TrEMBL record:
Source organism per UniProt: Halobaculum lipolyticum
Protein name: PGF-CTERM sorting domain-containing protein
Keyword Transport in record: no
Pfam families linked: DUF7282 (PF23951), PGF-CTERM (PF18204)
Region described as Disordered: spans on this chain: 149-170
Record's keyword annotation contains Transmembrane helix: yes
Entry-linked InterPro entries: PGF_CTERM, Slg1/2_DUF7282
Annotated DUF7282 domain residues: 40-140
Keywords: Membrane, Signal, Transmembrane, Transmembrane helix
Ranges that cross the membrane: 172-189
PGF-CTERM archaeal protein-sorting signal domain mapped to chain residues: 171-191
GO CC field: plasma membrane; S-layer
Domain of life of the native organism: Archaea
């Protein structure tokens, strides 16, 4: 790259990084304040499941909540109130259950004193740069196939006196197909 293309590329990269940082702050919720604390931390690993997300570890220096959001920033689950400390394998119930595989964001929030999570009142923990502390993970949701009913053939008794058997299993016309065939034959006969 020469100087003419490097400068615009760096400017574009700076704008993109700023936009991502702003979006990350907005996705963290609409908390009115942020709690800066370099010791707060959260770690979420890729996993599978639809009903809950397991946060590998979370450090909340002043207590608070572990919050899981979707990639759009919508809160999908919160932990119960946690006292100050470090926690491992925090299971956060997701409601409604995840319908598809997706990226989730784990974050730690301080408590505003009510010990009940409130996205607009509880501040997110931030790093020294003022960025929300969070970690992303990919949650795989196993698709469940719905069982469909299949028709089973039933044997019928052999007609008496003919010695021939009638098989009732195998391909054949259904009622709807037979009606379509009859209607088609009637139309052809009219020509």
């Amino acid at each position: 790259m020469n100087a003419r293309t490097t400068l615009p590329a760096l400017a574009l990269l700076s704008v993109l990084v700023g936009a991502v940082a702003l979006a990350g702050g907005l996705a963290a919720g609409t908390a009115t304040a942020q709690t800066a604390n370099a010791t707060a931390d959260v770690s979420v690993d890729d996993q599978s499941g639809a009903a809950s997300v397991v946060v590998e570890s979370a450090t909340l220096p002043d207590g608070g909540f572990v919050v899981v959001s979707n990639a759009s920033g919508g809160v999908v689950g919160t932990s119960e109130y946690l006292e100050a400390g470090t926690y491992e394998d925090v299971t956060v119930e997701v409601s409604p259950e995840l319908a598809r595989s997706q990226v989730v964001i784990g974050q730690v929030y301080a408590n505003n004193g009510t010990e009940s999570f409130n996205a607009s009142a509880d501040p997110v923990y931030t790093n020294d740069n003022g960025q929300p502390i969070g970690d992303t993970a990919y949650v795989t949701v196993e698709s469940t196939e719905t069982a469909t009913a299949t028709a089973t053939a039933t044997a019928t008794a052999e007609p008496t006196g003919t010695g021939a058997s009638t098989e009732t299993s195998g391909p054949g016309f259904g009622v709807a197909t037979a009606l379509v065939a009859i209607a088609g034959a009637a139309l052809l006969a009219r020509r």
